[in-house]
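Mods, move this if it's the wrong board.
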Amino acid sequence: MTSGVTVNDEVIRVFNDMKVRKSSTQEEAKQRKKAVLFCLSEDRKKIVVEEGKQILVGETVDDPYACFVKLLPLDDCRYGLYDAFYETKESKKEDLVFIFWAPENAPLKSKMIYASSKDAIKKKFTGIKHEWQVNGLEDIQDRTTLAEKLGGNVVVSLEGKPM
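Not the wrong board. Structure tokens:
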């Protein structure tokens, strides 16, 4: 079932900017998004970038993952992109993770429209290796859960912090 919801061009631009890590000046790199949330527009017809709900690479935050989790509303659904930096025993990696946040407290109507609109945004996000549906803080607060999604027990560090 699809909802007829469309994806705003700004959402696609943000995704492409996060996906393509072109060599840039240090200042440009600092402006790249580490994490961003997307929501439905007020009329519920478009998926848009949520104002003020992002973390930039250049921001000095101790734990970008914990900051990202704090951006999530406890009573409504969202889509998110998180640029995860992690290490396995063999190499350092950076992957985008698509997150569908549908907490238990969200209104049923919201859960239904977000669930039925998920394919619209996923089709625009070509090349995403990791998708994660999360239904509550207990599923997302612990960094080890993200590490499992990225590569199971081969992940030795996430965002520079040992597992």
